[in-house]
Design a protein that fits this description.
By secondary structure, this protein is of the alpha+beta class. The protein is about 25% helix and about 30% strand. Strands 1, 2, 3, 4, 5 and 10 form a 6-stranded antiparallel β-sheet that branches. Strands 6-7 form a two-stranded antiparallel sheet. The protein has a two-stranded antiparallel ribbon with strand order 8-9.
Amino acid sequence: MSRPTTACIGLGANIGHPRRAVRDALDALATLPQTRLVAASRLYRSGAWGHVNQPDFVNAAAVVETELEPATLLAQLLAIERAAGRDRQGETASLRWGPRVLDLDLLLFAEHVINEPGLRVPHPHLHERAFALVPLAEIAPDQSFPGHGTVAEALRLIDASGVEPISDG
């Protein structure tokens, strides 16, 4: 039996029913094998990144403890996306940062640095994405972020003014 590892996951959606998709994905994370959902952030609204002419995103972050290997955890995240209706096969390179029914990113896997085909951890753009860092800093500000200190330290270096919490009301 392997020792649980802390992993941080970013969640986002901006088409269909984004709030429900993100909440359902958080519920799905809690059911992953050999994995325990430790914390989930509030929901946040942010403008689109990359292709900005699209609806605002709903974002959140989660921290899990898992005994799964990084590639296996990523495969589980992709399965949650598919169950929500995302078809990565049908996405074109021109829509790399386009509209999403659901997007789950493995942001951090303890202090590991992984650079394999299809799997890069820390997420290669995390340090410049307020929409991922703001919710993650809410629940894991002291989490180690290789190459950037901690999540909170990385967040202090970028403009997070466009990321706003969504009220439940």
